[in-house]
Amino acid sequence: MRHCxxxxxxxxxRDELDRYNALIDxxxxxxxxxxxxxxxxxxxxxDILILPAIERLKEKSRQRDRDTEEYLRRKEIERQxxxxxxxxxx
Length: 90
Hints:
The chain is an all-alpha fold. It has one domain (6-89). 86% of the residues lie in helices and 0% in strands. The termini are far apart.
């Protein structure tokens, strides 16, 4: 069984996390029973289950990028204003 990343697990809702943990337990049991044909099906269900959390992670990343862009834009404006003030003082 493949686990998802800690970042993705952290963004699962309580219900999604409970279902994820149950599916992982089922998958480990099936592996112990050498039922790899069924493990594949369980892994596909896990992959589908974590898709919303992956999207939430991507959105957090996009928001961080937007915040960084806004910060850099503000810093540039502040720098330009400081230059204008310095010119006015001369």
